[in-house]
UniProtKB/TrEMBL annotation:
InterPro entries assigned to the protein according to its UniProt record, in alphabetical order: Glyas_Bleomycin-R_OHBP_Dase, Glyas_Fos-R_dOase_dom, VOC_core
Pfam families, per database record: Glyoxalase
Domain VOC positions: 10-126, 170-284
Official protein name in the record: Catechol 2,3-dioxygenase
Domain of life: Bacteria
GO molecular function: dioxygenase activity
SUPFAM superfamilies associated with the record: Glyoxalase/Bleomycin resistance protein/Dihydroxybiphenyl dioxygenase
Record keywords: Dioxygenase, Oxidoreductase
Record keyword Oxidoreductase present: yes
Length: 284
């Protein structure tokens, strides 16, 4: 998984707000297949390998129902290592009667569902990069129907059992609602240093480093000019971008501040927000 290792800049983990931590933990353990790495003061860090947190849940003290038509999380995307792993998730979902959406994006095969608060989740596998089609610096992606029969058949015997997510599972990418696509593009390209690898019509674009199909998706499907999600609503609290080294982080911070964004240090991370209020932790 070289697209999620240094020297590539990539998304490492995501923190979301939830209304009821116990209810959410049951869902993420029994439905998604993650385990609790650490739990403290209304927060739980979840892991696939027992060592590294890829998703954290923070309980809201006085929650309001999830707000629609706001900037914030569209979905976070959990990347599995093998086709048999995705096939196993399909079988598990069917046995649990969990409603899921699906799509074949050519570069990947994906399943979609929501957690109890309506936070969007994608679970996917990548096709081999040799199968991706590039037109110059743009990678071809579509929203085609997923061939479940082929997926299950290709998964083989390994797909018949579900024991949670495999240890090699990582956070593959994040997809965000933004209020202004041009502002977002300027921030993420000129500020954070990503490249645009796919323009999906006039309302969405996909960006990455190291020629991945996307580490971050950005869209205005919730509306143009929409406000940020309230901290009292379930949704995105923050996500982490890993930079190759301290010098790269220093230069990135300088560029982001040059665009007018504030950057503050919080323990080992420098924290900023994109123009739509999506909170980002910059680490090395």
């Amino acid at each position: 998984m070289s697209f999620h290792q240094k020297p590539v800049t990539f998304v490492k983990d995501v923190t979301i707000r939830v209304a009821d931590l116990e209810k959410s933990l049951q869902f993420y353990r029994e439905v998604i297949g993650l385990n609790v790495l650490e739990r403290k003061d209304g927060r739980a860090d979840l892991t696939a390998d027992g060592k590294t947190s890829i998703l954290s849940l923070e309980e809201i003290e006085n929650p309001v129902p999830k707000q629609r038509g706001r900037a914030g999380l569209y979905h976070f995307a959990i990347l599995l290592p093998e086709k048999s792993d995705l096939a196993s998730v399909v079988r598990h979902s069917a046995e649990k009667r969990i409603p899921i959406g699906s799509s074949d994006h050519l570069v990947s095969e994906a399943l979609y569902l929501n957690d109890p608060d309506g936070n969007g989740i994608e679970i996917y596998i990548d096709r081999d990069p040799s199968e991706w089609t590039w037109n110059g610096d743009q990678v071809t992606m579509t929203v085609d129907p997923l061939d479940f029969e082929q997926l299950i058949a290709a998964g083989g015997e390994e797909a018949k059992s579900w024991n949670g997510l495999p240890e090699e599972t990582i956070m593959g990418h994040i997809h965000l609602h933004v209020s202004d696509l041009q502002e977002a593009e300027k921030f993420y390209i000129e500020g954070l240093g990503f490249d645009v690898v796919n323009r999906f019509g006039a309302q969405a674009l996909f960006i990455s480093d190291g020629d991945y199909h996307h580490h971050i998706g950005l869209n205005t499907w919730a509306g143009v000019g929409v406000p940020a999600t309230s901290p009292e609503s379930p949704g995105l609290e923050s996500y982490t971008i890993v930079l190759p080294d301290e010098e790269t982080r220093k230069n990135t911070i300088s560029r982001v501040e040059g665009l007018g964004a504030e950057v503050v240090q919080e323990e080992d991370a420098f924290v900023t927000e994109d123009p739509s209020g999506n909170r980002i932790r910059l680490v090395v």
